[in-house]
Amino acid sequence: MPNDMVEQLRVRQVVEDWAVWRDAGDWERFRTVWHPDGVMMATWFQGPANDFIAVTKEGWAKGVSILHFLGGSSIDVSGKRAIAQTKMTISQRAAVDGVICDVVCTGRFYDFFEKRGDVWAIVLRQPIYEKDRLDPIDPGVKLELDRDLLAQFPEGYRHLAYLQTKIGFTVKRDMPMLKGAAVERLYARGAAWLAGKPLEK
User: Is 121 among the domain residues?
Assistant: First the structure.
């Protein structure tokens, strides 16, 4: 097997471990998918991976339900660096104005990887949010959304942001989506990363 393919498979394994270990609450193994300076970006959290693990554990204990499902990956490897794009869905269940709902957001994980020693791990995870929907789990229940509030959020994760805001999260409102300046900046950062340049904030 060509060496680049071996490295791509190793990166993909880390992507899969992230989803399984995080959603299973396997926190010690989940910690290993990150480099010590790793950063997580999400609608409801932006910061060091260690802090992300801590607040995710707290939410888990309180019954916060967020799950992930992975699709195909495209992985570019350049020496000891890689960019992995992986199709995914984020599924969250919570009460919205007293109605239990599921929100499903489709997008991609855009991951900055580095191989340190012989270990591939994540330096930065930046999701790209492409489209979403919100449904009561009981189809017979009618849910009236606050249209003014809904309209405040970006189209790619509008319903996810709505649900998260309703349950008390502060949502970041300029995340990359399928199109637009934010995702173009992200692609430029990825290209620079593969070219060996420092990861710009």
Answer: yes
